[in-house]
Amino acid sequence: KLLPAPQGRLSGRKVVITAGPTHEPVDPVRFVGNRSSGKQGYAIAAACRNEGADVTLISGPVSLPAPSGCDVIHVQTAREMMAATEQALPADVFIACAAVADYRPAVETPHKVKKERGGLTAIDLIENPDILATISQLDVGRPQLVVGFAAETDDVLGHAETKRARKKCDWIVANDVSPGTPSMGGDKNEVTIITGDDDESLPMMAKDMLGAHLARRIADKLDQG
Ligand code: CTP
Ligand code: CA
């Protein structure tokens, strides 16, 4: 149903990207969630498509238009995002840009919780599956290149490197989301791409530009085999 991708350095390659937050229902009208505009993930999806890739974008709830030419799969919860990611494989590249809610309510109340019927004073939480760690550690069908993101507020590079090692992704893109930095919700981002052998600290740039830069670096890596 999609038009053929333009010819580019990622022609013939399949890229799967998660983006946006997840919403974990408390009841039919309330959720537990993370902050994420989805802008960076959508920009990476568009950039990979512009380089000729066949792109599946698995998106949590955001208010952004679908990037043209990408196959967009809309999900709400982490478990739906996990299932959609597994379904979208095999792929050459997996990029986990989503701000997945780490926990979900242990029970989803099927009816609206009402104040006059006792209301809600606490929510029991259970941990969600880790999509990036799961895909990074697939025995069969692991994408050749798995890229994670690490949004941190202190010791950004230290925490990001620890995360890369723990989850076993190939690269991790680290950014500082301390209050006052523009990356959360804004149109710019300032990141360090940690690859292990060729780390790169980039200046602040538009999220679109960073998407294009990442698409080029991914093409370089796949060319190297
Ligand atoms: N991630 C994921 N599934 C999860 C949690 C995180 O795929 N359940 C991915 C994110 O998309 C991101 C990377 O893992 O690429 C790091 O996410 P982050 O929230 O920074 O790491 P956590 O391991 O959840 O650690 P914490 O939130 O405690 O810092
Ligand atoms: Ca997290």
Main attributes of the structure:
single chain; 225 residues; alpha/beta; 8-stranded mixed sheet; two-stranded antiparallel ribbon; 5 helices; 26% helix; globular; binds cytidine-5'-triphosphate; binds calcium ion
Question: Can you describe this structure?
Answer:
Its EC number is 4.1.1.36, 6.3.2.5. Its cofactor is Mg(2+); FMN. This protein is of the alpha/beta class and 225 residues long. The chain is built from five helices and 14 strands. It has helices at 39-50, 78-88, 131-136, 156-167, 207-224; strands at 14-19, 23-27, 30-33, 54-59, 71-74, 93-96, 103-105, 125-127, 145-152, 171-176, 188-189, 191-194, 200-201, 205-206. The chain is globular, with a radius of gyration of 18 Å. The mean pLDDT is 95. Cytidine-5'-triphosphate binds next to helix 3 and strand 9.
Mind sketching the topology for me?
Elements: E1 14-19, E2 23-27, E3 30-33, H1 39-50, E4 54-59, E5 71-74, H2 78-88, E6 93-96, E7 103-105, E8 125-127, H3 131-136, E9 145-152, H4 156-167, E10 171-176, E11 188-189, E12 191-194, E13 200-201, E14 205-206, H5 207-224
Parallel strand pairs: 1-4, 1-6, 4-5, 6-9, 9-10
Antiparallel strand pairs: 2-3, 7-8, 10-12, 11-14, 12-13
Helix pairs in contact: 1-5
Bound molecules: cytidine-5'-triphosphate (CTP) and calcium ion.
Region (Phosphopantothenate--cysteine ligase): 15-225
Protein name: Coenzyme A biosynthesis bifunctional protein CoaBC
GO biological process, one term: pantothenate catabolic process
